[in-house]
């Protein structure tokens, strides 16, 4: 049975570090060997710093996959969708590799990232290193509970891990989408709490869905549920706020067992899905209301293969 990377379904941590790399051409055989060693490195550190609850994820960019693993490709793996949309400016980053490190100790994250960079050099260039942190026991910088509807338990595994029946080669892998959102907190904080709640579609304290008529059809919560309150979100998210002197926002990771899950949800939020046409009160300009208070400057699509796949693919014969 294929074994998934432990960071995909891990519980929330206090700190997260994100490494984006570009790989040098002609080093694919070496990279396959090194990427198989990253989970081993993380497992060793997790055992040494057991109280830190360290986990991680190694993911390969959609545009680099065929160079690294030419023998097979996950179904539907493609570059980040909706890069050109009238309702939201999206900036796609062309990253070959993405490594996520999460734990309850920032120093352990630092050690793990340092060792991963040492392992992968000189065959990669580090494009960017991002840092996220847990805020007010799981709230977003808007003050709202982050993803209160996130699935739990077996439902989480069902939504994130590729089914072995549909794609046996990629069983226990996961489609991964990265977005970095910058918040306009100056204007957001000028809103009344009742206005913020109607934009988000949930109560600010409890995180529960508002009741009609306060529940706007284009609220953040309802568009995440494809327009119906009874729907469960089709994705599992791992979000972390980030904050610098002049920039604050959210690093959003979305995991899915099939790529259409993300396309459906994000397309619905952008107001560009055909299924939205004909809905009561719908117009071509309707989209997630929260998009008026944020913008994404970094978007990328990856696939996080199973540990079994990483180990198998690094063998000289590829078998």
TrEMBL record:
An example Gene Ontology CC term for this record: cytosol
Matching PANTHER family: DEFERROCHELATASE/PEROXIDASE, DYP-TYPE PEROXIDASE FAMILY PROTEIN
InterPro entries on file: Dimeric_a/b-barrel, Dyp_perox_C, Dyp_perox_N, Dyp_peroxidase
The Dyp-type peroxidase C-terminal domain, residue ranges: 138-306
Domain of life, source organism: Bacteria
Keywords: Iron, Metal-binding, Oxidoreductase, Peroxidase
Family of this protein: Belongs to the DyP-type peroxidase family.
Cofactor: heme b
GO terms of molecular function: heme binding; metal ion binding; peroxidase activity
Name this polypeptide is given: Putative iron-dependent peroxidase
Matching SUPFAM superfamilies: Dimeric alpha+beta barrel (SSF54909)
Phylogenetic placement of the source organism: Bacteria, Pseudomonadati, Pseudomonadota, Gammaproteobacteria, Chromatiales
Stretches assigned to the Dyp-type peroxidase N-terminal domain: 46-134
